[in-house]
Design brief:
The structure holds two protein chains of two kinds. By secondary structure, chain A is of the alpha+beta class. Chain A is built from ten helices and ten strands. Helix content of chain A is 44%, strand content 21%. By secondary structure, chain B is an alpha/beta fold. Chain B has two domains: 163 residues, Aspartate Aminotransferase, domain 1; 236 residues, Type I PLP-dependent aspartate aminotransferase-like (Major domain) (Aspartate Aminotransferase, domain 2, 3-Layer(aba) Sandwich). The longest helix of chain B has 22 residues. Classes of the chains: A alpha+beta, B alpha/beta.
C-alpha cells in the first residue's frame, strides 16, 4: 500500500504495517475487554451499572462494537446497534496513534459521555494493558488472567495476520487444514485456532473431535515462562512441561505465525 | 513386555537446558519424539544396529543416526581404516592423498561423476551445488520442490522461519513434486533466469507419505532443463548409497549434472561430497567454498573403506530385501489388530503411517510404545535400515511392534 495525505487529519495514509497494527488493536486487543471483565474484579467494578455501546470505526477499514451492559461486555466486529459513543479513526496510522500514543479519536457521537471515556473506559484499557504488557509482580490470580488474556490475544491476532500479512499467509498456505488446541492443564483452560471453511481463524469452542493438533502446557508457570521467553518450546517438550500431539505441522506453523505478532505489537 | 523409563535421560536433559538452547537442538531435539517423555535423549554406547541410553535401555535403532549409519555402529573395517589413517596423518596444513583416492573411487563408482569435491555436512554440498549452478549459468534462480529438504541455510528454509529474510528466499521457486507442468511454467515465467533445479531422487518429506517419481517424470525434467539451459542437481544426501551405489539416479534412471552425497558415505564419519559432470568442472573450480575440517584424511579413509564394503556386500540389494520383509511383517501385524499401516518410499528407508486416524495421534502413540519396548521409531520421518540389522533383529522388532499394537488396541 502506498502513502498519501489524509485531507482531514493531515497524517500520512498508512503503510501496510499500520493497516495490520490497527486491525490487531480493533480485532485482537479490544475483544480482550470481554474476557477482562469476566476474569478481573477490578475491571468489572469499572463498568458496574454502566450501559454504553461504543463503536470504533476505522474509515474504510475495521470496526469494533463494544456493548457494556449488566456488568459485562460483548464484542462484535461490526455495528450491532446505534452506538451511544462513536469514535472515528481516520486512517490506520491514526488508529495506531490513538491506541499507542494516546492521540484522540474523532468523537462523532457521545459528547455527553466524555467523563465515562476519560475515567472509566480509560482505566479499563489501562487495566487491560497491565495484563497484556506483563509484570513480575502479579498475584497468583493475576498470573492466571495474564496467561488467559495473552493466549486469547495471540490467537485473535493470528487470525488478523492470517488475513492481512503476506508472510503469515505464505506460512498458512503451506499448513495442513485442521484445528489447533492450546491448553493450560492445571487451570483447565483451552483456546483454539484453525481452518474453517478455508479461513484460518480464532475458534471459540469447537468440538473436541474436530481438534487435530494439541499444544498442551503443564501448568500456569510453564505458560508464563513460555510467554515471557524464559523457556523455549523444545526444552519444554523434553522437560515434560509441554506436550504436542496430532498434526505437528499445524503446531509448528502456528508457532511461526504467533512469532510474527511481535513485529507489530510489543 | 517390559517398558522403559527414562529418569537418567531426564536428569541429563535438565542439565542440558541450562546451557544449550532447546536442550538438544535441530533434528535431535525432542520435537520429533511424540510424546517426548516416551523417548531417550542421550546415549552411552552403540554397537551394530543398537544403542544404549543413559538409563541402560537397549534399542534396536531404526533411525541409524538419521541415515549416516549404514554398516552398523563400530564396524571394524571402517573403524580400522579411520584409526590407521588418523595415526598417520589427519588434519594438517596440506591435503591428504586419501582425498585423491576417494575422488577416484567415486568417479569410478558413480556413472554421472567426472570429479568429486568433499566437505563435512549435506548442506555444505547442497550450498556448493547451487553456487556451482549459478556460476555455470550466470543466473540467480533455483527451483526446488515444496516440502523438499536440502539443509538449513537460509535459502533452503521457508519465509517466516526465524532468522530467514524474504531476500534469502527471493530466488527460490517452490513447485509441487511430480509436476512437470509446474516445472515448465516456472521455467517459462522465469525465462533465462533459472540456474538450476534441486530435488531428491524421490520425494521423502517429513509428515506426509513419500512418493516415487511418476513414469517419465525425471526424463521430462531433464528435457525441460536442457531446453532452458538449467542445471539438474540431485540431492542424494539421504538416499545416496542406500538405493544404488552409483547414485539413486541410477535406480530411477536419470542423469543429473551434479549429485550431493553425505549420510551413508562413511558409516557415520563426517564427510560429504559433491560430484559433477566434466562440463561443470571449471565452474566448480571458480566457486570458493571451504571449511576448517574438510581435508581430514581419516574421514576420507573411512569413506573409502565404507564404499568398498558397501560394494562388496551389495548393500542396496540386502537392504531392499530386508526392508521388504520387514514391511510385509509390519503390515500383517497391523492388519491382525485391525489397523492399516501405509508404507511408502524405498524399503530400506521407508515412511510409515497408520492411516486409521487422520490426526496421526494413533501413529504417534504406536511409535512411542514401540520405542518404550526397545525399537527406536520416530513418528514422522522415514526410518532407516542398516547392514547390521539381521533377520533376528527384524523378528525381535516385529514382536515389539505386535506388543505395541496390542497395547494401543486395548487403550482405544
Amino acid at each position: 500500500m502506498g502513502t498519501s495525505s489524509c485531507p482531514f487529519c493531515k497524517t500520512e495514509q498508512s503503510n501496510t504495517k499500520d493497516v495490520i497494527k490497527s486491525a490487531l488493536y480493533l480485532r485482537a486487543i479490544l475483544p480482550c475487554l470481554v474476557d477482562l471483565v469476566q476474569l478481573d474484579k477490578q475491571a468489572k467494578d469499572l463498568i458496574r451499572s454502566t450501559n454504553e455501546k461504543i463503536y470504533f470505526s476505522l474509515r474504510n477499514g475495521e470496526k469494533a462494537f463494544l456493548q457494556i451492559e449488566d456488568d459485562k461486555i460483548t464484542y462484535s466486529p461490526k455495528k450491532e446497534a446505534t452506538p451511544s459513543i462513536h469514535l472515528l479513526l481516520l486512517t490506520p496510522t491514526h488508529a495506531v496513534q490513538v491506541f499507542e500514543q494516546g492521540k484522540n479519536p474523532f468523537l462523532l457521537r457521545g459528547f455527553t459521555k466524555l467523563s465515562f471515556l476519560k475515567k472509566n473506559f480509560d482505566a479499563l484499557t489501562k487495566r487491560l494493558e497491565y495484563f497484556l504488557k506483563g509484570s513480575q509482580d502479579y498475584t497468583e490470580e493475576e498470573q492466571k488472567i495474564y496467561v488467559i488474556l495473552q493466549l486469547k490475544t495471540a490467537l485473535r491476532a493470528a487470525e488478523v495476520l492470517a488475513e492481512k500479512e503476506e508472510i503469515s499467509k505464505k506460512i498458512l498456505a503451506n499448513t495442513p487444514q485442521g484445528i489447533l488446541k492450546i491448553a493450560v492443564e492445571d487451570i483447565d483452560f483451552s483456546v483454539y485456532f484453525g481452518s474453517l471453511q478455508g479461513r484460518w481463524q480464532y475458534i471459540d469452542k469447537p468440538s473436541e473431535q474436530s481438534v487435530s493438533s494439541i499444544l498442551s502446557l503443564k501448568d500456569l508457570e510453564t505458560a508464563k515462562l513460555l510467554l515471557t521467553n524464559k523457556l523455549d518450546t523444545f526444552a519444554g517438550l523434553g522437560l515434560g512441561k509441554v506436550y504436542i500431539a496430532g498434526i505437528i505441522p499445524i503446531v509448528d506453523n502456528m508457532g511461526l505465525v504467533l512469532g510474527r505478532i511481535t513485529e507489530y505489537l510489543s | 513386555m517390559q517398558v522403559y523409563h527414562y529418569s537418567e535421560n531426564q536428569k541429563w536433559f535438565e542439565r542440558a537446558t541450562r546451557v544449550i538452547p532447546c536442550g538438544i537442538y535441530g533434528h535431535f531435539s525432542p520435537a520429533p519424539c511424540i510424546p517426548a517423555y516416551n523417548y531417550p535423549f542421550f546415549s552411552t554406547r552403540t554397537e551394530g544396529c543398537r544403542f544404549w541410553d543413559v538409563d541402560g535401555n537397549e534399542f534396536i535403532d531404526y533411525m541409524c543416526a538419521y541415515g549416516p549409519m549404514i554398516l552398523g555402529y563400530h564396524n571394524p573395517v571402517i573403524d580400522e581404516a579411520f584409526i590407521n589413517q588418523s595415526r598417520q596423518a589427519d588434519i594438517n596444513s596440506v591435503a591428504s592423498t586419501k582425498m585423491v583416492e576417494l575422488a577416484e573411487l567415486m568417479v569410478d563408482l558413480i556413472p554421472a561423476a567426472d570429479w568429486a569435491f568433499f566437505a563435512k555436512n549435506g548442506a555444505d554440498v547442497t550450498n556448493y551445488a547451487v553456487m556451482v549452478a549459478r556460476a555455470a549459468t550466470g543466473r540467480k534462480k533455483i527451483i526446488a520442490i515444496k516440502g523438499g529438504y536440502h539443509g538449513t541455510a537460509p535459502w533452503m528454509q521457508g519465509v517466516g522461519h526465524p532468522g530467514v529474510t524474504e531476500e534469502d528466499v527471493a530466488n527460490i521457486i517452490r513447485i509441487p513434486w511430480n509436476d512437470l507442468k509446474a516445472l515448465e511454467q516456472a521455467l517459462e515465467e522465469n525465462y533465462g533466469q533459472v540456474a538450476g533445479f534441486i530435488s531428491s531422487p524421490y520425494h521423502h518429506p517429513t509428515f506426509v507419505d513419500n512418493e516415487y517419481p511418476a513414469e517419465g517424470y525425471w526424463q521430462g525434467v531433464e528435457k525441460l532443463l536442457k531446453k532452458h539451459g538449467a542445471i539438474l542437481i540431485s540431492d542424494d544426501v539421504r538416499t545416496g548409497f542406500r538405493i544404488h551405489l552409483g547414485g539413486s539416479n541410477e535406480f530411477f534412471k536419470f542423469n543429473p549434472d551434479l549429485i550431493c552425497f553425505c549420510k551413508a558415505i562413511a558409516n557415520g564419519y563426517p564427510i560429504s561430497a559433491l560430484v559433477g559432470k566434466e562440463e561443470l568442472r571449471v565452474a566448480a573450480s571458480k566457486v570458493f567454498h571451504t571449511g576448517s575440517y574438510w581435508y581430514s584424511g581419516s574421514y576420507m579413509a573411512a569413506a573409502i573403506a565404507n564404499l568398498n564394503e558397501l560394494k562388496r556386500l551389495n548393500a542396496p540389494e540386502y537392504l531392499y530385501n530386508l526392508g521388504t520383509k520387514f514391511n510385509e511383517g509390519l503390515i500383517k501385524i497391523a492388519k491382525d489388530y485391525g489397523f492399516t499401516l501405509k508404507i511408502t518410499g524405498h524399503p530400506s528407508m521407508a515412511y510409515y503411517r497408520i492411516t486409521d486416524d487422520p490426526t496421526m495421534q494413533l501413529h504417534q502413540k504406536w511409535c512411542a510404545e514401540c520405542t518404550k519396548r526397545g525399537a527406536f521409531f520416530t513418528s514422522h520421518h522415514n526410518w532407516f535400515l542398516s547392514m547390521a540389522h539381521t533377520e533376528a533383529d527384524i523378528q525381535k522388532t516385529l514382536e515389539i511392534c505386535d506388543d505395541a499394537f496390542k497395547f494401543i488396541k486395548s487403550s482405544i
